[in-house]
Structures are given as C-alpha cells and as structure tokens.
Amino acid sequence: MEVIQFETILRKTDGELWQYFFLVPDSVSTLLIENQNRRVICRIDDVVYHCALLPNGRNEYLVLLNKERRKKLGLNQGERFIAELRKDTSELGMPMSDELTAVFEQDGEAYSIFCDLTPGKKRSLIYWADNVKSSDIKIRRAIVLIAHLKETQGKIDFKVLGERIKQANRNKIKPQGLK
C-alpha cells in the first residue's frame, strides 16, 4: 500500500461543526480517491487515524484534525508539518474494538441490522461506541447500541441513543451475559 508524504499547514475555519484541518495537494488526492471511496489512513508523527478526504467546495480536499490529536502533536494554527496518507482498504474504513465485536457476536440480529446500514452510519456507530478508553464503558455503550438498533430496526436516533447511554451510566449498568 503506497504511502504518500507531503508538507502542509494546519488551518482553521470559522465553522461550528469542525475547525482545524489541512489541505491535501491535488496530486495526492487524485491518487487516493477511487470511485466514491475517499477513506484514508493519516499519519502525522506518531499519531495515526482513519479519516476521509473531505471536499471543501473549491475542487480541493482536506483532512480534519481534532483537538485531542492537535494537542498530542503540539500543533497550532499556521504551523507546517509533514503528513502521510495511504488508502484505507479496511472493510469498514476504521477499526472496531474487541468489545464492540464481542457484543455483536452475542447478538446476530443486531449485527445483521448493523450490516445493512450505510458505511457512514456504521462508522458513526463504531466511533460513538468506541471513542472512550475504558473497556467497561465500551461494552456498556455497545449494549445500549445493539438494543437501540433492534428497537428501531436500524433507524438510528443519536439524540435518543445519547440519552440512553447517559441513563446507563447513571444506573451503572454492568456488562453482563457476555461469553
């Protein structure tokens, strides 16, 4: 898998949805985009993450860089750095934790519903369930997630899902019944 390295600058937008990003040179994005697949794996120093090349509306592509990663890298707006990108050939476009995998293995119906979702919804759910450090919390979120998937037959309501995880956290629902 070819790794493409280039120098870029950390930029900031005034938008509310996301703020920090870097532009990807045309020569790089052309090599990485295949059909509609814009998923890549980004590496900056020792920080590696799955992401997408996002169009900015001016025939350019960008990659987002969140606060946690910027802090770890010590990067500030306007600073130059070396980025590496390679095509993400993984099935889901991001890794799924062992905890979420184990919960899905225990519930075939929920996994079947999950498999029928769009790739973007799958990634959103994986991110939502796995974006914590604690294994117990990952399992708790996965349990809430599969219950929601089955109840809604895949019509995800992230507001309801968020409320249910808050309730599960308050009640300290313990992971149970996993083999």
Protein described:
The protein has seven helices and eight strands; from the N terminus they run βββαββββαβααααα. With 179 residues, the protein is α+β, with helices and mostly antiparallel strands. The chain has two domains: 4-87, Elongation Factor Tu (Ef-tu), domain 3, CATH 2.40.30.100; 98-170, no CATH class. Strand 4 (39-44) and strand 5 (47-52) form a beta hairpin. The longest helix is centred in the last third of the chain and has 18 residues, at 135-152. It is globular, with a radius of gyration of 18 Å. Mean pLDDT is 89; it is low at 175-179.
What would the keywords be for this entry?
alpha+beta; four-stranded antiparallel β-sheet; 179 residues; disordered C terminus; Elongation Factor Tu (Ef-tu), domain 3; 41% helix; 2 domains; 7 helices
The best one-word shape is: globular
For this structure, the quaternary state is: single chain
Number of helices: 7
Q: What string gives the helices and strands in order?
A: EEEHEEEEHEHHHHH
Strand order of the largest sheet: 1-8-4-5
| Binned strand content | 15-25%
In the residues, how many domains can be counted?
2
Let me know the average pLDDT: 89
Q: Which architecture name of the largest domain does CATH use?
A: Beta Barrel
Uncertain runs: 175-179
Major β-sheet annotation: 4 strands, antiparallel
Got a strand count? 8
Radius of gyration: 18 Å
Level-1 CATH class name of the largest domain = Mainly Beta
CATH superfamily of the largest domain: AF2212/PG0164-like
Proportion of residues in helical segments = 40-55%
Fold-level CATH name of the largest domain: Elongation Factor Tu (Ef-tu), domain 3
Q: What structural category characterises the helix and strand content? A: alpha+beta
The N- and C-terminal alpha carbons lie at a distance of 37 Å
